[in-house]
TrEMBL record:
The chain crosses the membrane at residues 6-25. This is Cbb3-type cytochrome oxidase assembly protein CcoS. InterPro entries: Cyt_oxidase_maturation_cbb3. Keywords: Membrane, Transmembrane, Transmembrane helix. The keyword Transmembrane applies. The keyword Transcription does not apply. The gene is ccoS. Pfam families: FixS.
């Protein structure tokens, strides 16, 4: 039973850290251009040596 006193606050802390990381990513613009990265892999760029 005493392990629950350790695991429950640990789980809440990990959830808060994940939530803080998500809000930091939103604020820093990580999710601004979702289609750009998906389309960039489809672009066929020719290399200089060929």
């Amino acid at each position: 039973m005493s392990i629950l006193g350790f695991l429950i606050p640990l789980a809440l802390l990990m959830g808060l850290v994940g939530l803080a990381a998500f809000f930091w990513a939103m604020k820093s613009g990580q999710f601004e251009d979702l289609d750009g990265a998906a389309n960039r892999i489809l672009i066929d760029e020719e290399e200089d040596g060929q």
